[in-house]
Structure formats: structure tokens, C-alpha cells
Amino acid sequence: xxxxxxxxxxxxxxxxxxxxxxxxxxxxxxxxxxxxxxxxxxxxxxxxxxxxxxxxxxxxxxxxxxxxxxxxxxxxxxxxxxxxxxxxxxxxxxxxxxxxxxxxxxxxxxxxxxxxxxxxxxxxxxxxxxxxxxxxxxxxxxxxxxxxxxxxxxxxxxxxxxxxxxxxxxxxxxxxxxxxxxxxxxxxxxxxxxxxxxxxxxxxxxxxxxxxxxxxxxxxxxxxxxxxxxxxxxxxxxxxxxxxxxxxxxxxxxxxxxxxxxxxxxxxxxxxxxxxxxxxxxxxxxxxxxxxxxxxxxxxxxxxxxxxxxxxxxxxxxxxxxxxxxxxxxxxxxxxxxxxxxxxxxxxxxxxxxxxxxxxxxxxxxxxxxxxxxxxxxxxxxxxxxxxxxxxxxxxxxxxxxxxxxxxxxxxxxxxxxxxxxxxx
Length: 425
What we know:
By secondary structure, the protein is an alpha+beta fold. Helices cover 47% and strands 12% of the residues. It has helices spanning 3-18, 23-27, 32-44, 71-89, 105-117, 132-135, 138-148, 156-171, 185-189, 211-231, 251-269, 303-320, 335-342, 354-372, 377-387, and strands at residues 54-58, 64-68, 123-128, 180-181, 236-240, 243-248, 279-282, 287-289, 292-294, 299-301, 346-348, 351-352, 395-397, 405-407. Strand 1 and strand 2 form a beta hairpin. The termini are far apart.
């Protein structure tokens, strides 16, 4: 193995170490050294080729298809992003919040509230890009990559390898060769044609489910960000993936910006705004953004999230107490189905295993964590006191603020007692 391949192999091993104890890592653990060495050599010699995807459907928060890359490609994706993200991130605007370190949904909501409280921001216009990921033109994206490549702070030899890997990823058709289908196959057939990569034209569409797709989506829409900030000179602007909000003092200004953005998206990026997801109204009426109804000085939880938690609670109750007379609720799709296929759920009816309790706790606290960012103390208390029902046997709030739940001590695994030997007399 060459020195270059050895250096890349060390970097790939570091990427594997950061992957945590994932299921895919455990499945490939025995062959991990061989996998890393093979890919390091392929990258060093300029012949890296991605493997086919695995495709499945998820329903939370909405029905969509996910294209999961092979484990070996995930390592290469991490290796690539490590090299190119620092340079790119400095060129993104501050008010782009998706898939960036130190950003995220709650930071985006706080920034939006900051803009809503400023003078001259009495109105807002919320826009959404229609079928964003299935509509990305990978040829345009490849051109953006090629324009940036000479500016990357790496030697020519490293840039050449980065270019080969990036070009292979951006040129890969997610559906050719055919991906392996997984999960509930019936859900895949329910995805609308305009949201599926199986019906996308050649060279169009990026798969949801890979690190590089998240990163290059920001590269693609950075063109829109720069247009909004530097051409239209919009001061109040927040974007999270394809959902973005503009603020101004009057609706006429917002409508003129919307028309300009529509033209830019069509001509420059071959994208279109969703015709039914444009909202133009006063900030005082609140903005439905990233899971919250956002007002200048407070937030409320979206009812869709509350309904989703109630569906989960109904299913948890049926799972733990299967002999009740309640109708069988819909089985959650995706990760829960996969988990149940590999784990024992009950010791007996009404007696969940410790593994199931931990799994349910993670789900409940994920909802409570989202609600905790809004002004929802009464809601969080009501859900625990009135809607957990028999599940209160297993869980208790961590405090009077009801921000998180924990497993009651009686249901925690007990450590084996050690009996000390009495000293001889």
C-alpha cells in the first residue's frame, strides 16, 4: 500500500471511530480493516465508485423515501465532508440553519423571533420549494463544485482525489443500479411520483438519507441565499433546508421579493416554489415554522406534533397491555418495526422488558424535548397526568417543569447484590 493510501486509511478509520456503535458498524466490524484498506486504495488511485443504495419509506413527520448509502460509502462521505465542509461553511450566510454545526431548528426559531421583534418587520412571507431533493439538478450542482474546487485550501494532488470522489457521488444515479428495497414495501408505492426519485429525469434528484446530500443541498441553495441577501438585500431572512421566511414592513415588498425569487429559482437552479405553501400575513398572527407556532415573544407547539405523540401513546398502551379492549392502533413504521423484529418487548402482558422501557422513554422524551422549547408547561403536564394512563406505572417526570420523563426506580434493572463474607472468629 502506498503512503497516500495509508494516510487515507488512517482518516477512514477515524471516521469509523466517530460512527459510534451503530448497527451497520457492528454488522461490518469483522471486515472493517479490509473495507477501509480497499476504499483507501480506491481513493488514492482515483477509482472510487459508490455502491447501490438501500431504499425504504418513512412516515414521520411525513411520507417520503429514504436512500441509505452502503456502510463503506458512509465512511467515504465522512472523509469527503471533513475535507470540504470547513471552507464551504465560511461562505454560507449566517441565517442558513440546516445541517450545520452550532445551528439547528431551535437556533433558527430564536433568530426568527429576533427578526419578528425588530421595527420594520410587521409582515412575513413564508415560502417552500416544491419537491426539493427530487428536483435538484445534479449537473448544476456539479458545476458549482467545479467552480469552487480550485479555491479549496488543499494541494493539487488532494484536490484531484476530492474531485474524483465528489464527481462520483454527484454523478451517481440513486436508482441505477436498482437499490435494495427494505422496510414496508407498500409504503414505497404510496409516494407521489413527483416526490420519488424513480420518476426523476436523468441527472435530476438527490437522495435523502446521506451526509453528502445534506451538505450539497446547502451548497445548492447557497445560491439562493446569496441572491436574497446581496441582490434583493433582504435583512430579515431565515432558511432551514427548503423552508424559508422573509420579513418586511408591508406585503407589497414581500410579494415583489417572491416574484424575484421565483424567477431566480427557475432560471438558475431549475426549482419551483410550492404553489400551495406560500403564506403572507402579519407577524402578530404567528408563523408555523420548524415544529412551532412562532410569535415575537413566545412559541406554541404545533398540533400535528401533539397528535403524533398521542398516536404513539395509544400504540404503546396497546403494545404493553395487549388484552385491553381498545382497537389496535396503527403500527409505527420504520425504526420501530425493525427494533421489534430484533428485540423482546414483554416479559409478560403489562410487564415490559428494560429494553422496551428505554426505547419508549427515548421516544417520549424526544417529543417532550421539542415541546420544552415552546411555552407548553400546561400541555406537558396534561399529557403526563391525563394521557399516559397506565404508562404512568413505568415513568415519572424529572421535575415540576415536566420537561423530561424518567423510568421509575422499581422498573430499573437491579444490580446483583454482593454478599461479603464474614471474617472468621
